[in-house]
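Quick start: what a row looks like.
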Amino acid sequence: MSSTAQAVPPPAPARARRRTLPAGPVLAGVLAFALHAWLGLARWNAGRSGAFDLGVFAQAAQSWAAGNLPYSDIRGLPLLGEHFSPVTALFGAAWWLWPDPRSLILTQAAAVAVACAVVHAAARRHLDARAAAVVTLVFTTSYGLVGLTRLDVHEVCFAVPLLALSCSALADRRLTAAMAWSLPLLLVKEDQGPTVAAVAAVAFLLARGPGRGRVRRRAVAAVLLALAGTALAFTAIRYGNPDGEVPLFTLRFAGEAAAAEPWTWAADGTPRALLVLTVLAAGGFVWVRSPLALVALPTLAWRLASPYESYWSTGFHYDAVLTPVVALALVDVLRRTTRRTGRVPVLLLAAVAVVALTTSAVTYRAANYVASPLDPGAWRPSAAAQDLLALSADLPAGSLVAADNGAGPYLVARHTVRLLSNLDPVRAEWVVVDTRIDGASASSAAKTGFLAEARALGLPVVQHGTAAAVRMPCAGTVWLPEPGGNPPLPAPVWRTGC
């Protein structure tokens, strides 16, 4: 052999080649994290966060971080007795790292960011760069994700990346992987079992080739696991609930709620049809041509069947679990169209983008509070938020506090917080109100009237701006008197004394 031939080095073995993360999905995830973290933090900075749900999940995170099962004084019960969501232990890990409600906001933004990275990666595998960018933009700014992050935090945020991974695998026809990614949904919430079964059903239908029988057996097993997991979740809820109830049924599908006709398409000004139309438009309508669209059916079905009007709304967090299904079904449709024509149909892609982005923009504008990037106050704590935090610092650490919905989350890091409302009495040492706005638990007029009564009685008042704390004569029953009257309630401690 010649010396020249000996000088040529052999090629590096495949296993020695360095693997790097694709730049596109990483960039998509970083941008999505920035957007959704900003949406949540801007709400906090404006002093608009609520005890429902940020305060509730912050208290759950405190429990997990202390090595206990999640409990919320705001809800007044162990949270696994309301919803089966062991996944909220991840909020506990965030709290252990940074004991502040904002750690939960950042955790949720990270979950959404992972989903956006997964969607971009899947779109790029099947479509060109331009189409992948459009689909990722539609998903990242979708009204379902904005509805989730603009309302502080919710446990369903952890379902978003799991559904993205599961539907991405369905789009790739990696059917066993799709079912595997769906199974952890059983730990997110008790209503996710039917979605796990739907993923398995789609995998069953898509199974082809020599391994079809094996995949279908696994699909049947996944359905059985979904049924067993759902039954276990309901059993755990009933066991942990103080009243031995499953609130999803008791409050949303039975009692007074069931008195309404369940399939009436419009009631109290909120039509069910609007929910269906909005979900269809979120993917430019064409996404329903993919078999992946079947994964969305269980969530839509139980929401439409309930007479509980909030389930029909597009302004809450409920649609967040549908958005990954819509995005990946859209990728599947565009992929099949591209295979037939040899290129991504530009006009179809443009039409989908216009319809989906317009739908999100309209829903965004209709929401009761979404921060504007043009508002300088959205980028730093407002006077209202600073007043609430200063008030929290002035109270003795560990105080038993009854706070209205808008003040609660700013106090949970240092105090035991319960919800002050005009309906249910709670026991407290301090009553904290923020008179800026009408809240979910109390009107501004009621809060102003309460402060006037407290001062007239000579009770100690600590005030920062519109936020005020009133020291009760002793730990006792408190509630908020409304000018128009309240249901029959026991006399509050500031009137009866100790």
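That is the whole record. Residues 383-496 form one domain. The mean pLDDT is 89.
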